[in-house]
């Protein structure tokens, strides 16, 4: 049986390791030239994106990336 203090220590250790993995992942992605961005879209747009992802083999992230790349290409920025 695990005591409350032991359970807390285990959870804190798991959280610490998760933060380290995330930091390493972000470092690796930056080294490859990727940048992390946040996008705020309306609920209606999110629903359309969610529906499109369900009807294809792509994830929402992949679909958004394609849209952003197309927009940049159309403006001559890529």
Fold and architecture overview:
The chain is mostly helical. Helices cover 71% and strands 0% of the residues. It has 3 helices and no strands. The protein has helices at 4-31, 43-54, 60-74. The longest helix has 28 residues, at 4-31. The protein is elongated and about 60 Å long. The model has no long low-confidence stretch (mean pLDDT 90).
User: What is the rounded Rg?
Assistant: 19 Å
Run of helices and strands: HHH
Q: In percent, how much strand structure appears in the residues?
A: under 5%
Helix count from the secondary structure assignment: 3
**Mean pLDDT metric:** 90
What is the distance, rounded to the nearest whole angstrom, between the alpha carbons of the first and last residues?
A: 58 Å
Number of strands: 0
Structural class comes to mainly alpha
Rough outline: elongated
Give the low-pLDDT segments. none
Q: Report the major sheet.
A: none
Oligomer: single chain
Q: Percent of residues in helical segments?
A: over 70%
Task: Sum up the structure in keywords.
mainly alpha; 78 residues
Can you summarize this structure?
The chain has 78 residues and is an all-alpha fold.
Question: Secondary-structure blueprint of this entry?
Answer:
Elements lengths: L3 H28 L11 H12 L5 H15 L4
């Amino acid at each position: 049986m695990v005591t409350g203090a032991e359970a807390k220590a285990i959870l804190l250790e798991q959280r610490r390791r998760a933060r380290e993995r995330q930091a390493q992942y972000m470092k690796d992605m930056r080294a490859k030239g990727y940048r992390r961005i946040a996008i705020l879209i309306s609920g209606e747009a999110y629903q359309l994106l969610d529906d499109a992802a369900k009807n294809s083999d792509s994830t929402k992230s992949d679909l958004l990336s394609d849209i952003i790349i197309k927009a940049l290409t159309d403006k001559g920025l890529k």
